[in-house]
């Protein structure tokens, strides 16, 4: 074989090897990546709420546990999905971004701040329909527990 044919064959071989290595290391078109991520984001918050398994949690117990030992309450509830039962609407933020919930004790610093996903208009509409003093049941995910303000929860559903 001539030097030219051998050189061309070697060059083509290198290109093929580089292409294989690139595809094995996660190479792919942006269209493939976009289509897989867009299909996964199409699930609504309500559907996510149905898929989750929630633990029942009475709001008076939540607040009591945070008062007694915020570190233990944080360990028990942080990153957990819970249903907050017997909650009373204490404050509704003016942009409907969150609602503060309290238990049966009227004068307390500790609350549950339940935040709406800014993109979920269903939750925002539900917050707009609430009244101060109304009893609600909130399905959500505990983001954090603190000794000063209480619980921070992202809302999946309000009843």
Verbal overview:
There is one protein chain. The protein is α/β, with parallel strands linked by helices. It is 42% helix and 30% strand. Strands 2-3-4-6-5 form a five-stranded mixed barrel, surrounded by four helices. Strand 2 and strand 3 form a beta hairpin. Helix 4 crosses helix 5. It is globular, with a radius of gyration of 26 Å. About 13% of the residues have low confidence.
Summarize this structure briefly.
By secondary structure, the chain is of the alpha/beta class. It contains six helices and six strands. It is globular and about 95 Å long.
Label the overall shape: globular
Strand percentage lies at 25-35%
Adjacency order of strands in the biggest sheet: 2-3-4-6-5
Averaged pLDDT: 80
Beta strand count: 6
Low-pLDDT segments, ≥5 res: 23-42
SSE arrangement, N to C = HHHEHHEEEHEE
The structural class is alpha/beta
How many separate helices? 6
Largest sheet report: 5 strands, mixed, barrel
CA-atom Rg in angstroms:
26 Å
Helix content: 40-55%
In angstroms, what separates the terminal alpha carbons? 80 Å
